[in-house]
Amino acid sequence: MTAITLDQHAPEPLYQQLYERLRTAILAGQLQPGAALPSMRTLAAEMGISRNTTALAYELLQLEGYIESRVGSGTRVVQVQPEQLAQMPARPTHRHQADAAPPQDLARRCQLLLDTPDSGVEDAGPPGEVRSPFRIGEPDVAAFPYDIWARLVAHHARHSLPTVARYQSAQGYTPLREAIAAHIGITRGVHCAPEQIVLTAGSQGALDLIGRVLLNPGDQAWVEAPGYTGARGALLAAGAALVPVPVDQEGMDVAAGQAQCAAARLAIVTPSHQFPTGVTMSLRRRLELLQWANTAHAWLVEDDYDSEFRFSGRPLEALHGLDRAGRVIYIGTFSKTLYPSLRLGFLVAPMALLPGFLAMRRLIDTHLPLLEQLALADFITQGHFARHIRKMRLRYRERRDALVGALREALGDLLEVAVPEAGLHLVAWLPATLRAEDVVARAAHYGLPIRTITQPRPHAPAREGLVFGFAAVSPAELRAGVRTLARAVRADY
């Protein structure tokens, strides 16, 4: 047990890490049948974690039949069944054994995905990998109230699972949908019934579901340029033909989109906080977009991915709140507000589309795992969610200000910093004398991975820029990262 280590900064909660490590040890035979495990209290003390964490990990292992607890004999490993052994992760293969499939064996849309730049959202990566302090799309997972969450999950693991163990609604847990409807109605002006909400595997799951339901191969779809590559990927996976529409200081240029393709089937937009530029779509553009969708009988997909974190005033009301014709599909996610590996999001569908969404959802994966849905419903209704958002909004504003100040002090003569009013990242624009790829190469030489605004040519932005996340690390780490960047940029400039 002393070999088990947990990462306080990993996106997975500690109880999930402990569960996975114990489960792997049992399946690998490192913990033999009949082996006694420490008591929950003893293990918590030895590892420096809460008793709730060990209790929840043990609870999950017991529910899945890996351990058993008996009065007088403590907690012991049970005999692993053949079907459990089949779940053991495969051993890593050598490079030559894991070569990618040749292009002719892949569907065209899959090959397009392989050729598409990544989204800019970083995976955890292997231990010891150098990671940038400017990680994009990653909240401060260390600040999440894991003890509260573990208590809620443990409660439902003990008391609720037997009543919901059968197949459930494809839409998701009803009390959670009710809590979401109440929350977004108050905070985002999205007035909907719980029956319109479909729970998804994050916002990416919602985008994928929308593409499957609304697009035929070859249908044209507007995407922001520059924009979120995850949205592009979901459309490519559905076989859509992408129409890149330029973004300026007012957001997506609707007139430019109409000039290119007035008969597009749908458009994906981030009006509250455009990714990656950070601009907010003006009211004029919002009304133009709604008018186009109504006239063209097109669908608007509003990705409201980090609108909760607005640093001045209350969050702007969503595009959905202006829609009178029922053409907007609203997407939200808890990956940014809570922790990324939770993988819970949702979409708000017009009632006319709901049967199609549910029919497709049942055939994809029936429904999401339920335990986290049960816990999240309580997390929202008991007020923990609102308190967490208020706390994190102040923390992220402090980090934004620290990054802006550091960039202006160290590189103010070279970078034009766009100060965002919301979100978890900012953009710094480069002068014509500096190329983004050169800055990236110099920074990498100094051990600092950074990202640029990327967009396939000929749709690349007129100006090149760097994208800096600021939510995942402390102000001191952000300042240190900027100092390294400044040394790299000025090394031979």
Walk me through the topology.
Layout lengths: L13 H14 L8 E2 L2 H8 L3 H13 L3 E4 L3 E4 L4 H4 L22 H7 L31 H14 L14 H14 L9 E4 L1 H13 L5 E6 L3 H9 L3 E8 L2 E2 L1 H8 L4 E4 L13 H14 L2 E5 L24 E6 L11 E4 L5 H11 L6 H11 L2 H28 L4 E3 L6 E5 L6 H10 L5 E2 L12 E5 L5 H16 L3
Parallel strand pairs: 5-6, 5-8, 8-9, 9-10
Antiparallel strand pairs: 1-3, 2-3, 4-11, 6-7, 10-11, 12-13, 13-15, 14-15
Give an overview of the whole structure.
- The N and C termini lie far apart (53 Å).
- It contains 16 helices and 15 strands.
- Helix 7 (174-187) crosses helix 13, helix 8 packs across helix 12 (354-364) and helix 14 runs parallel beside helix 16 (475-490).
- The protein has helices at 14-27, 40-47, 51-63, 82-85, 108-114, 146-159, 174-187, 202-214, 229-237, 254-261, 283-296, 354-364, 371-381, 384-411, 436-445, 475-490, and strands at residues 36-37, 67-70, 74-77, 197-200, 220-225, 241-248, 251-252, 266-269, 299-303, 328-333, 345-348, 416-418, 425-429, 451-452, 465-469.
- The protein is of the alpha/beta class and 493 residues long.
- The strands form 3 sheets. An 8-stranded mixed sheet has the order 4-11-10-9-8-5-6-7, sandwiched between helices.
What overall geometry do the principal axes of the alpha carbons give? globular
Strand content: 5-15%
Secondary-structure content class: alpha/beta
- Taking the alpha carbons of the first and last residues, their distance comes to 53 Å
Name the assembly state: single chain
Helix content: 25-40%
- Low-pLDDT stretches are 82-86, 88-101, 456-460
Structural Rg: 24 Å
Query: What's the number of helices?
Result: 16
Strand arrangement within the widest β-sheet reads: 4-11-10-9-8-5-6-7
Specify the biggest β-sheet: 8 strands, mixed
